[in-house]
Structure formats: C-alpha cells, structure tokens
Design brief:
Blueprint: H1 2-27, H2 31-55, H3 57-82, H4 90-96, H5 101-111, H6 117-133, H7 136-174, H8 179-217, H9 223-233, H10 242-254, H11 258-288, H12 292-306, H13 310-333
Amino acid sequence: MVDTERLRVGFFALVLLVFGYLVVLIVRPFLTALLVAVLLAVLLAPVQRRLAPRVGERISAAGLVGLAVAATAAVGAVLVAAAPTGLGDLSATLEGLSVPTAAEQRVERLLGVEVPLASIVESVPRRVAELLVGDLTGLVSATTDFFLGAVLFLFVLYYLLVDGDRLVDWVGERLPFDDATTAALREDAHRTTWAVLKGHVFVAVVQGGVAGVGLLLVGLPNVLFWSAVMMVLELFPVVGVAGVLGPAALWLGFQNRLLAAAFLVVYGATAVAVVDDYLRARVVDRGSSLHSATVLVGVFGGVYAFGAVGLFYGPIVVGLFGTLVRLFDEQYVDG
C-alpha cells in the first residue's frame, strides 16, 4: 500500500514537472513583457486599491492601463519633438556633421597617430542604415514578437490589477511554509521591490535632471532630449550619465571651449556623483536593508539573466534569497 502511494506521488510529481517545463517554453518568448507588467502592476496597485471601491475593479484597472499607455505615448512624443532636428532627420544630421581639422590635429598631437575623425563620423549613418535594414526577416520577426508581447503585456497588466491580491494570496496558501514564514516573505518582497523601484527610477530621473542642468549651464542645445537620454542611461550599470556628459565635454573641447568642458567634467564628478551616492544610500540601501555591493551584484547579474528588466529584478531576487537564508537559519539551524 505504501509503495503504491509513493508511486502515485512520484507519477504526480513527474506530470507536474513535465507541464511546468511546457509552461516555461510557452512563457519564455514573452518573459520580458510579463516581468514589466508585474513591475507596473506593483506601481499601480496602490492607486487601484483606492479607485476600485469607488468605480469598480474592472473600470479602474482599464482606466489605469489606458493611462499607462497614454503616458508612454506622451513621453515618446515629447522626446521625438525635443530630439535634435527630429529623429527622422537624424541620419541627415549626422551626415552633415564635420569634425574640425583643428580637432583632428589636436588628437593627432595627443596620440601621436593620425585619427580620421571626420570619416568616422560620416560613416555612422551608413553603418546604422546597414544595421537596420540588413536583415529584413529578422526585422519582421522582431516586429511580430513586439506586437504579441505588447498585447500580452496589456492583458496581463489589466488582470494583475484586478486579481493581483487574490493571486498573491493563492500563491501564499500553496507555499510549503508556515504562516509566519509566508508573511515574512511577503513583507520583505514588498519592501525590497518598492525600494529597488524607487531607487532605480527615482534616482535615474533626479540624476538625469541634475546632469541636464550642467548641459544647460554650458549652453548646449536640446537639453530636454539629452536629459531624458541620461535618465535612461542611468538605469544601466557603468554607463550612466557619463554616456552623455563625456562626449559633450569632448565636443566642447573640440570647439575650443575648454573652460566649459572643464566645468562639465568637474560638475559631473561632484554634483552629479554626490546626488547619485546620497539618493541610492537613502532610498535603495535603507529601504531594502541591502548592502550597496549586494545591490550592485544584483544589478549586474540581473541584466545578464533577465535583460534590461534585470536592473530591477536582480536586486529583488538577491534580497529575497537573503531573506530565505535568514528564515532557514532561524527555523532550522538555530532550532
């Protein structure tokens, strides 16, 4: 009787593993869209809880999804309008750029070798065009995947806003933990998720804005566009606002505006860096009880594991792993 029961349990577990593997295969192509939907649902959940009793769960969820889409479209439209000469004329703009001969001579004296800066700049539009249209099949496939991912994102976000709390309760009831452990995991997951979201998004917006003030002070054009670019770059490790401030300082140097270039370098190394260090220590480290090195490892590893969304999920996963280690130690090792 015992052997028969074990055989049934083993067969049931095997069936679960097989179907779990099939679900992974189905979800994997749209993993990024699903992860982004979860993050956005976490951000909008407090608003959903306030609106649902007044207008109904489904109406408030649909309104929030529409608001998110409209906000994304509006931000995109503003960036396109603020872009230098418009994104559609970017290739012509790059082709029209010319590096002054004096700049080439200055680089040659500095490095001791001739560097054809003008030809390098002029070849950029052609290289970009080759990259975009070189593989038409890949472009069509990527467009199809993007469309399907966008549709799935909208539906998943809507249903997470409507049934997200019930889904969390359902998962918690089926975890093989006692009530105290489940509650501790939920609390730590909520606190760490919000701390990481505020840390990455809020710090990126503030630091990009502060760096944009530096561009404004030295008189560079299209400050709004480049500030938005720096906000996006700040979400990526290592690159940050230096991806714009560095080339801007070099461009000022090529224009013989050495004082402005020096000011921009000093401004980035002091004001921008201080804002980054202070806000990350206040928002991420204090909110999630994660060490700065742990957050950094989570960010780098998360990018490799999940892509761009790993910027957020990496530290969250590392933080939950630390929580599990602590709970295991309290319940089993100490006992």
